[in-house]
Structure formats: C-alpha cells, structure tokens
Amino acid sequence: MANASNIVTTVFGPPLKAVLEPVNHFLAVHYLPWSTLCAMALFAGAVVWVWTLKKEYVNVDAPRQGFWFDLRVWTVLCLLPHVVVYLYFAKWS
Amino acid sequence: MSGFNQATVGGLSYIDLFIIFSYVVGVVLIGVYYGKYIKSASDFFLAGRALPFWAIGMSIVVSDIGGTDFLYVGGASYTYGISAANFDWMGSMPAMIIAAFIFMPYYWRAGVYTVPEFLGRRYNAAVQVIHASIWGSITLVGLAIIFFGTAKFLNIILGWNYWLGVSVTVVAVGLYTFSGGLTAVVMTDVIQMIIMFVGGLSLSALSLWEVGGWHALKDKVLAMGPQYADHFTILRPMSADNPYPWAGIVFGLGIVLAMAYFSGNQAIVQRVFGARSEWDAKGGMLFGGLLKFFVPLMVALPGLCAVVLVPGMEKGDNAVPAMIRLLLPAGIRGLTFSALVASFLSSADTSLSAASTIWTTDLYGRLHQLIKGRYPGEKHNLYVGRTFTVIFVIGAALASKQLEEQKSIYNFMQSLFSMIQGPIFAILLLGIMWKRINQWGGLAGLVLGLTCSYVLFHVDGLFPAEDPFLFVAWWSFVFSLAVTVVVSLLTPADPEEKTRGMVFGQVMRDGKIQRVLAQRVE
User: Fold this and answer.
1) Burial label, B21 (beta-carbon count in 10 A; 0-12, 13-18, 19+)
2) In the structure, what pLDDT confidence band is assigned to residue B371 with cuts at 50, 70 and 90?
3) CATH class as words, domain B25-405
4) Do A89 and B254 make contact, defined as CB atoms within 8 angstroms?
C-alpha cells in the first residue's frame, strides 16, 4: 500500500503541483473581501436563478394558489437567515 | 422523590434514565405501529408516496445531523470557532435549492426508487452498478460507524459494555425499520427532530445565559488569547493549520459536497421520492434548508460557550457532553441525552433503509434481470428488502468493533465521501443538463474521476490543509466534468429515445414529453 502511494506521488506529484500551486497562491492572496463576496454570490445566485424559472414549473401540484404557497417566496425566506449570518460573521479587511 | 433524582452512572439521575428509556421504547413502538400499512415494496421503500412536505423536511434534517455531528461539530466549534457552522450553513441552503428545483422534479417525474436507477436509465447498466456498489458499501460502512459511536456514547452515559450498547441499538432500529420501512423511519424522525431541537436549543439557551449573553461570549473568547482571534470569523484564510479554508468551504463544500449530498445521496433523496406530490417534494427540501439554519445554534453554540465555561479541554469533542453535565438540571439532562440518542438512531435507520433499498433494487434487481430476464415483482422485492435489512443490521453491528483501530472515524468518513462525491455529482449534473452527454462519457467521467480522487488524496502537499477533503472534492468534480464532456463529444451521441424526458430543458418546455413521463410514473 505504501509502495502504491509512493508511485502515485512520484508520477503525479510534480505535474499536479505545477498546476495547483499557482491556484492555491491566488486564492490565498485574494482572501479578503473575496471570500465573503463568493459566498454571497452563491446565495444570491441561487435566489435569482429560482426567480428565472417559470412559476408553473416551480409550483406544480401546489395545494393552493397564493403568496404563501409560492415556493419562490419560500426560497427567499429560507435563504435570508443564512445571508444574515454570513454578513454578520464576515471579515472584510 | 429525592431518591428518584439521585445521581447514577454517568452523573444521570433516575428521572433522566426514565426519560431516555421511555423515549427509546416509545420510538420503537411507533415505528412498529406503521408496519400495518406496509403492503408492497412501494410502501416499504417509498412510504406509499404519501409524505407531506413538513415530514420530509424534518426527516431530512434529523437524518443529516447524526450524533457524531453533535459531538464533533460541537468539538470543532470549541477548537476552531464559528467556522465549523459552515457545514450546516454553506453546506445546506444553496445545495437544497438546486436539489429542489433541478434534481427532485426529475427523479420525481421519472418515477425511480434510487439515484443509481436514474443513472442506469440516463447512462447504462455499468454506471448504475458502479454507483450502487459504491453507495451501497459506503452506506454500510456508515451504519457500522453509527453503531460504533452509539455504543461508545451509551458506554459513557450509562456504563454499558460495547456489545450491550450495540445490541440494544440494533434491536431498536432493526425492529422498526424492518416492520415499518420508510414511513416508520420518517415518522420516528419527526419525533426525534422535535426532541433534538428542544434538547439542543435548551442547552444553547442555558449555555448563553451562563456565559452572560452573546456579547459577553464574544468579549470573553476574544480576550483569551491570539489563538482565538478567528473564533468568530465564518470564512477563514487559506493556511495549513486551518481545517476549513475559505476556498475549500465555498467551492468544495458549497458547490460540490453539499450539492452531491442533497442531490445524489440515497438516504436523503429517498425521503423526497416518498412525497405525496412534486410540490411537497420541493417544499420539503426548502423547509429542511430552513431547519438546517438552526442546527449550528444547538450544536456549535454550546461548543463556543464551552471555551469560556470549560477551558483547556484536551479533546474538543468532549465539550458538548461536558456542557450537558455542567448546565442542565435532572429531567432536561435526560431529554438532551435522549436528543443525542435520537440523533444516533435516526442516522442508523436512515443508513439501514437506504442500504437495503440500493442493494434490493439496483444490485439484486439487476442480477435478477440478468439471470431471469426481468426485474423481481413487488412482493418479491419487499421480501428481499426485509432480508437485506436483517443481514445489514447484524453485519454492520459485528463489523463496527473493527473501527476502534481507526484513529479518527470522522475524518475517515469525510475522506470516503469526498473521494466519491465529486465524480458522481459531475455525471449527475451533466446527465440532466446536457442532452449530448452520452453513456460512454458518463462511464469515463465516473471511473476516471474516482481515480483522480484517489491520486489527489495520496500525493502529499498539494493543498494548504492538513486534511484536504474539501479540495479533493472540488478538483475531482472539475476533472470529471472535463472527462465526461470530452469523451461524450468524441463518441457517437445516444439515440433520441434514450435521452427523451431525461434532460432539464425538455421537461421544462416540452408538454408532449411531460405527458409521456406522467404516464410512465403512473
């Protein structure tokens, strides 16, 4: 098992390090404020995407029509607390 | 009455023990009660497709938070601060939205029992069998880990020896999963979630009260020294001494691991397959995402408060049990320990139910088709499913003792998951989103992606983290995406009939295909 691991390291180690080290360095120096902005983009992107879907597709089989049975509204309400905590615990500089 | 409150083993009073035993017996009886509704394989595996959104959401959450999370996430918060909460915050809502509006409608409309079955239809039998073998095996390892954790936990609080703890868990979980199937699992999950939330939030509220409130907690922790400077920073820098670097959390956890978990994990997806309507399936996912928000409040917050109240602990994993003993009065302490027992039981029943489903429908079913030329019938499947349930529960219990040799079981499980999640999610996503992706692309993406994960794990020093599972998940996902696309474009496209109704754009816009799919489900 140790031999297999050594072979993998010898064969794949140098090319993988050549590719991944610059990426790791880039991500390390762009920690602030990009970490929080990326997280916010993930949250906001999910909400915006849901609102681009057809209402009929999102709410097919809904027991009733109306604001409180619209799953797009649920999406916003369920995501909001997550956004608040990420902004609260964010480090900007 | 004073005798009733006397301390027994593990600092618990008789009233605490009474609550714990009442809880376990009650859950088993309720689970067994639902056995009378089981008439077919569909009832057993999919709860007769009658689950409402609130039961699905609660069951997803309680299945997701194992007893190990209570101990290890609490411990990680003690050691690394609020960033441990990322696994429930970053690792939930965005992924659950994608699962709710892309993956669940497809599984739902295709009318499948399992994720491998869907992959079999979209790609080929090889992809289905490889995926089912990996998931079926990992779920069984997970079950053994849960039995191990439960036995250790019962040893700490009740003083039971290892095999007594395992036997009681096996009998309790095996009995209601065997007789009541998914309905029993979900309904007991609902009760377990309520107990967990009452117990967990009580502990958090008392912890905060004892520390002097939120602002006092922040001030006291930050004043304890420079090693606590990032305890209230949710996204931490990239450095080797930090297990949760921000890029790993956002890309590895938020985009790959969480999405793969909520879209491709049989244990989670099975609850959604059992929904009474597509709206309940989607709503259950979203409701589960909202409930997940509260998990760090009852798991991570006590860990943070323990930094002030029980400083200098060698192992952070002991923080939550220490806080329970320190703060909770008799009765509430029993309820909170019941919450922990609940979390172990719910994880065990989830793994057991998922493993028996995959082994019955995807592995045994395929084998039966190969030998006899057709899939087994409903009654036959129900019998096989129950037989697998018994075999797995006993097998996992016997195998669980071997885990003692693993240095860190939590890391072992994380590593296992991160090795497979990236490639599986890549072919799942591409298969649904792009019609041109074919069976050979899917097969190559899965096999080479898993190989890539293995290589990334075994080459030292590639990533700025001691345990690189977040980065392995991300890069194996990217690699699998590329391989799947390239191989698909280099080989002939699948016939039109094979991909009809399996691709997102068609189901969104093509009324004719939607009618065909509806007939197929019926």
Assistant:
1) middle
2) confident
3) mainly alpha
4) no
Task: Nearest chain A residue to B288 by CA: give it.
Answer: A78
Interchain proximity A13–B282, CB inside 8 Å: no
Among the partner-chain residues A31, A59, A71, the one whose CB lies closest to the CB of B237 is: A31
Please give the DSSP secondary-structure letter assigned to residue B245. Answer: B
Question: In this predicted model, what pLDDT tens digit does every residue of B49-91 receive, in sequence order?
Answer: 778 999 999 988 887 776 667 777 888 888 888 998 998 899 8
How far is it between the farthest Cα atoms of chain B?
Answer: 79
B347 in Cβ contact with B67 (< 8 Å): yes
Greatest mean pLDDT among A10-14, B149-153, B194-198, B429-433 lies in: B429-433
Cα–Cα distance for residue pair B18/B276, rounded to 1 Å: 37
3-state SS assignment for residue B501: coil
Asked if B109 and B501 count as a contact pair (C-beta separation under 8 A), the reply is: yes
Flag whether the ipTM exceeds 0.90: yes
Best CA proximity match to B45, nearest among B354, B393, B376: B354
How confident is the model over B213-247, as pLDDT tens digits? 999 999 999 998 888 888 899 998 887 677 788 99
pLDDT for B179 beyond 80: no
Residue with the larger pLDDT of the pair B176 and B333: B333
CB contact under 8 A, A79 and B93: yes
| Ramachandran angles phi, psi of A74, nearest 5° | -55, -40
Q: Which of B114, B429, B122, B463 is nearest to B255 (CA)?
A: B429
Domain ranges of chain B: 25-405, 406-491
Q: Would the pTM of this model clear 0.80, i.e. be above it?
A: yes
Contact A75 B97 (CB under 8 A): yes
Predicted confidence (pLDDT) per residue in B430-458, tens digit: 998 898 999 999 999 999 999 999 999 88
Give the residue extent of every domain in chain A.
Answer: 1-30, 31-93
User: Which tokens belong to A23?
Assistant: 């990426």
Return the closest-CA partner of residue B96 out of B295, B302, B265: B265
CA distances from B95 to A93, B19, B99, B115, B408 (A): 28, 36, 6, 17, 27
Which amino acid appears at position B506 of this protein?
Q
CA atoms of A5 and B120, how far apart (whole Å): 33
B-chain residue closest to A91, CA distance:
B233
Report which of B148, B194, B137, B185 is spatially closest to residue B170, judged by C-alpha positions: B148
User: Burial code of B288-320, b = ≥16 C-beta within 10 A, e = fewer?
Assistant: bbbbbbbbbbbbbbbbbbbbbbeeeeeebbbbb
